[in-house]
Each structure stands twice: as C-alpha cells, then as structure tokens.
Amino acid sequence: MTMHGEETACLQDFNGPNSYVAGFEEQCRERIVGLQARSRQGLWGLTLFALLSAGIYAAPASTVLISPKMFDLLGPSPPVSLISLALVIYCFSALVLAMPRIVDGGERYRGWSMLGYVSCFYGFYFYAGALEVNFWAVFAVGALLLSLEYVGVLIHCRAAVREEKAAIERHRRLAQM
Question: Where are the bilayer-spanning segments (predicted)?
C-alpha cells in the first residue's frame, strides 16, 4: 500500500503546476523570449543605421563643420577612387563572411561592427568632399550587409523557437501518458 501511495504522489507531483514538466515548459518559454529578443537586434541595427544615414543626409555636406586648420593638421584626404575601391572590397569581403552565416543560421548578430565600418565610409567621403555623390553607395552597402546579418540571425532564431515549441509539445504528450 505504501508503494501504491508513493506512485500516486509521484504522479501528482508530475502533473502538478510546479512539476518538472511545468518547469521545463517555463524554461523553454524563457529561451523563446530570449531568442525573439536576439532576433530583434538586427532590426535595431537597421534602425540605427537608417537614423544615422538620415542625420548625415540632412546635415550640411560642406566642410564648414571642420575648420581649415583641422584639414591642414590631418593632411590631404585619400583619392575618392581609393575610398570607393575600399568600400567595394569591404562589401565583397563582408558578403563572403555573411553568406555562410546566413546558410548555417548564425547565432550571433555581427551587425554592430558593420555599422561602425560603414559609418567610417561616410566620414571618409565627407573628408574627401565627395559625400553628396557617394552617399547612396554607402547607404546601399550598409543596408545590404545589415539586412543580410539580420536575416541570418532571424533564420537561426526562428529554427530554435520551432525546436523549443516542439520540445514543449513532446513533454506535454509524455505528461499525458
């Protein structure tokens, strides 16, 4: 009789709200919330890039922001053709690195460093006095690379959320047995 009473207690504990199954489901739901938050990092990166670009586009493109004395101190800017070549090389190398992460569904968002690098190109073109002409090229490269990073993380997070939901369903089925 004691044995049967212990089995009933175990079953009651297993089916109770504070049971292992309920705790497991809660852990899965917490991981899902974390994955959803991680997937939104890409949207934050794109939004920050759009705001930065809008601010740069709206700012006066003249060199009045930097005094002539500062230009003399920094020296001449590199030729615009070299800045453009560096932008093209950066774009292709970042694409080569981003594509495997998209296919594999990279877990970590790497767009923050891309945001910094692309922003530097705005500065290079500004210093060379060619920002107005090259603004849309930098914007297109930044939007492309940040969008690809976002897609890579989003693919990973959505797959992981599906796995967590499937685990919840499996444990619910086991609990009903």
Answer: 42-60, 80-99, 111-128, 134-155
- Please state, as a whole number, how many other Cβ atoms lie within 10 Å of the Cβ of residue 70: 11
CA torsion sign for 91, 92, 98, 99 is: positive
pTM of the model: 0.75
Exposed, middle or buried by CB within 10 Å (0-12, 13-18, 19+), for 64?
A: exposed
Closest C-alpha among 75, 70, 77, 72 to residue 129 = 77
CA–CA dist 35, 107 (Å, integer): 9
Which residues make Cβ contacts (< 8 Å) with residue 21, sequence separation at least 6?
14, 15, 171, 172, 174, 175
Q: How many CB atoms lie within 10 A of CB 119?
A: 17
Question: Which CA distances in Å does 78 have to 83, 119, 122?
Answer: 7, 17, 14
CA angle 40/41/43 to nearest 5° reads 65
Helices (H), the chain: 2-15, 20-39, 41-58, 68-74, 80-104, 111-128, 131-176
Q: Biggest alpha carbon distance in the chain?
A: 95
Q: What is the pLDDT of residues 13-66, one digit of tens each?
A: 444 444 555 677 788 788 888 888 887 888 888 999 999 999 888 876 555 667
What is the C-alpha to C-alpha distance for residues 149 and 108, in angstroms, rounded to an integer? 9
Q: From CA 58, how far away is CA 11, in angstroms rounded? A: 67
